[in-house]
Design goal:
The chain contains three helices and ten strands, in the order H-E-E-H-E-E-E-E-E-H-E-E-E. The protein is about 25% helix and about 30% strand. Helix 1 packs parallel to helix 3 (about 155-175). The radius of gyration is 17 Å and the shape is globular. Pfam families: HORMA.
Length: about 240
């Protein structure tokens, strides 16, 4: 899906503490938590990378941090539409990765690519077959879906929230090493969903929108008893 038009600007975030509660997330609860993480990731990247102006964002408390979310009606509506489908795919265990691509509107060149790989922990089964995943958004590329047979140890809510907060702190800190984006930029969200996934008409197959000769930096990840998410940012070096 393509994004609303861009404008300009900059970034920041803050910190606080979360309550600790021992519990075990159900598969449904874990899927919801991952989908919610993706939602805040989109907002945070748009803010931190200046894809939209800073004055179009407002602060909300989440993960013990002051998170910035877009208050622009068009952008919110676009992200809400993405999340509405993403929630369904997450609950169905249909997703292997979510990608946010920032593109220079003038040249059409992809300048930054944020990739979130999703592993779903499943019991080993001799009858289970690996499925293929397709990036949803312009052209078809099959890819093996990452799965894991070992479960993560149970964690408290506070431990999971701390892991997620650490990722957002890294995204915020990434402005220190990522090249400054120049010109007008827009963004696309790609979701790698199983080939047998039900896809709404407004979504289409997409190419992977890779960045040529990209520099890549592996960031932190987080896990629940059911899912593991890893983060990677690729970017074009300024010549």
């Amino acid at each position: 899906m393509s994004a609303p038009p861009k404008r300009s600007s900059s970034a920041r975030a803050g910190g606080d503490k979360d309550k600790s509660k021992v519990h075990k997330l159900s598969l449904k609860g874990s899927a919801k938590l991952v989908a919610e993480f993706f939602q805040y990731s989109i907002h945070t990247i748009l803010f931190q990378r200046g894809v939209y102006p800073a004055e179009d964002f407002s602060a909300v408390k989440k993960y013990g941090l002051n998170m910035l979310v877009s208050s622009d009606d068009q952008v919110r509506s676009y992200i809400k539409k993405i999340m509405s489908q993403l929630d369904k795919w997450m609950l169905g265990g249909k997703i292997s990765k979510l990608v946010i691509v920032i593109t220079d509107k003038d040249t059409g060149e992809h300048v930054e690519r944020w990739q979130f790989d999703v592993q779903i922990f499943k019991k080993a089964s001799s009858s289970s077959k690996s499925k293929t995943s397709t990036p949803i958004g312009d052209e078809n590329t099959g890819e093996e879906k990452p799965t894991a047979t070992e479960k993560e140890k149970d964690k408290t809510e506070a431990e999971i929230q701390q892991e997620i907060a650490a990722i957002f702190r890294q995204i915020t800190a990434s402005v220190t090493f990522l090249p400054q984006l120049s010109g007008n930029c827009t963004f696309n969200v790609l979701v790698y969903a199983d080939a047998d996934s039900e896809v709404p008409v407004e979504w289409g197959d997409s190419d992977a929108k890779e960045i040529k000769d990209a520099e890549k930096v592996q960031l932190r990840g987080f896990s629940t008893a059911n899912h593991k998410v890893e983060t990677l940012v690729s970017y074009r070096l300024v010549e």
